[in-house]
Design goal:
Elements: H1 3-26, E1 29-34, H2 40-52, E2 55-59, H3 62-71, E3 86-90, H4 95-106, E4 112-118, E5 121-124, H5 125-133, H6 137-178
Helix pairs in contact: 1-3, 4-5
Length: 179
């Protein structure tokens, strides 16, 4: 192989490592899975579900993903980056885990969760399953707002009933004075 061709190949790999590094930095969660037994149609289905959940499902060479993680200072993933590995980049902490966990159930034993990178930390496969069962940030905010709104609406109802009661009492007094 000529030096020029080696150099071009090396530069291309450097660009891919840089792309992976940027995607890891931009993602709230990165899930690693073994996808060996999936058909092309099943992979397409998973990609579509990821897209709907604002995630990205990609297959990279393990050595390039390992290099990107090592460049970021994370070596915990070296053992997981063996064999066929797909990477799912998530915009939040739970959506990618939910999509991949659902796919693992749907395509029983065809897709196996290896690990994840969430909030700059290594998460094992059990941690990914726990993440998948957690409500998303939006769901938590909605629940919190609902619980904050309930006392306010109850208070408004009490005030409304109080005012209505005063109006009824005043109406009854006015009726008595007219009689």
């Amino acid at each position: 192989m000529s030096e020029e061709r080696k150099s071009a190949n090396f530069e291309a790999k450097k660009l891919v490592v840089q792309e992976i590094t940027e995607k890891i930095k931009a993602s709230k969660s990165v899930i690693f899975v073994d996808y060996n037994a999936l058909t092309v149609k099943e992979v397409s289905d998973i990609r579509n579900k990821c897209r709907e959940a604002n995630c990205e499902y990609k297959v990279y060479k393990n050595t390039l993903v390992r290099k990107a993680l090592n460049d970021l200072g994370f070596k915990d993933f070296d053992n997981d980056l063996n064999g066929p590995t797909a990477v799912t980049f998530g915009a939040d902490e739970t959506k990618a885990a939910k999509v991949i966990s659902a796919a693992a159930k749907e395509y029983d034993k065809k897709i196996v969760i290896k690990s994840a990178f969430v909030d700059n930390a290594y998460v094992d496969k059990n941690g990914v399953k726990a993440l998948a069962s957690m409500p998303s940030r939006e769901e938590l905010v909605a629940k919190m707002l609902g619980s904050m709104q309930a006392p306010l609406s109850n208070f408004a109802g009490v005030l409304n009933n109080l005012v209505a009661g005063i109006v009824r009492v005043l109406g009854a007094i006015a009726d008595q004075k007219q009689a």
